[in-house]
Amino acid sequence: MAIFRKSFLVVMLLALAGTLANAQIGFAVPGSASPLNCSAFAGMALLRPEGFTERVGDILITCTGGTALPLGSQVPRTNITLFMSPVNITSRLLDPLSGLSEALLLIDDPGSSLPTGASGLYGPKAPQSLCASMVGCAAFAQLDGSGVYPVASTTAEGGTNAANVYQGYVGAAGDNTVTFWGVPVLPPELAGVQRTFRITNLRVPTVGLAEQQQISAFLSASNFAALPVPAASSLVGQVGPPMTATVDPAPAGGASPFAQCVAPGGATLAAKLHFSERLGTGFKTRVVPLTDVAWASTLPNTGTPGQNIPGNIFYGSESGFILPAATATIGPVTYVAGLADFGTRLKAVFTNIPAGIKVYVSTTNANGYAVPGGTGITPYAVLVAGNQSDEANTDGAVITPLSSGAVPGSDGLTAVPLTPDASGSATAVWEVVNTNPNTLDVTLTFSVYIGYDGVPATHGAARIANE
Description:
This protein is mainly β. The protein folds into 2 domains: about 35-240, no CATH class; about 245-285 and about 340-450, no CATH class. The chain has one helix spanning about 455-465, and strands spanning about 35-40, 45, 55, 60-65, 75-85, 95, 100-105, 140-145, 150-155, 160, 165-170, 175-185, 195-200, 205, 215-220, 235-240, 245-250, 270-275, 325-330, 335, 345-350, 355-360, 380-385, 405-410, 415, 425-435, 445-450. The relative contact order is 0.17.
């Protein structure tokens, strides 16, 4: 399984539709204790059929009731395993040997600041604390500052909130599985109070799947007494319609670049390329832009505030729930759990380019975007690669739009030349930096231009003599 996750589409798209409501610890209400009862619910994502790492919906386990544990006693733990069907799991691996991945389990939605009766930094008000042990982390039963709510602490004597973020290990029971080891389950005990476990950053490949193919997840707990979740499959995704890519070889304002009266050089409009998403969120930026500054949608977005609020869908973003504490450094690049390498990328390949002919493409789909990569919602994409070998060189890095050799295109857009390889093929790659997730069937259009070198006089004379 590859360690690098690519959010790269040649002809590509993704839409994350419905998810789950945010969970909360809740408020104690008068009532008698009930047996521990847990149930699982899933959000449903609409997935692009061209994606290798499509993000499916979150799975939320909610527990109520249970018997109070003696103060200072260790909280019972369980291993939680998800089985995906009919696909494998392609969440990024941060350690390919152990299967440690970016898939995360969050206890009580830490950092969401949802309402809770608990006093102190517990539950939704607790900071996000990563368990760094493969076998899980111990937690001990205590009471909150009010002395009413059961909470999990780091030691038997009390202290800070126990670890509340667990990373999933892919492949322990097959490539279609992810396991969270040693997760503590503290019974919520009080009426009106619930304990939640959210599983997020699950990604699957959808290439080759038919439209409307459903993706399911089956959940299993090794310690049923600690986490009594009924065995059942949940729908977490469905494959949507494919993106369309078309070529207009006779665009308005274009001219035949091979006509006798067209002067050599320059960039004469020869064709238009149209990419249509066919889904409301088919085109996505790398992250959700938090500020209206240039390229904010392409920056890592790992600070505070960042893209780390449990339960948010992050519409229009290739990245999921970003956890800066979970990283892996591979060569010069540090990869972060939940952070995609880049936004949606659109690729065009040109073949059989004759010697002496220059192929240009427009650097964007439109002129004059006020804040590229900011919070604007007018769809916008920029050229990031002009040959096959460079199309992935910006993985994990801040975006650098391609501008080398730029010339005016005959239709008013800026054009740059592509670099053919030895076989006469060239590649152009554009990345989406602004998008509107609420608009269906957005089309991004790019211009293709042709230029050519002047023919030396000796070549011209020879050609005339042979005619």
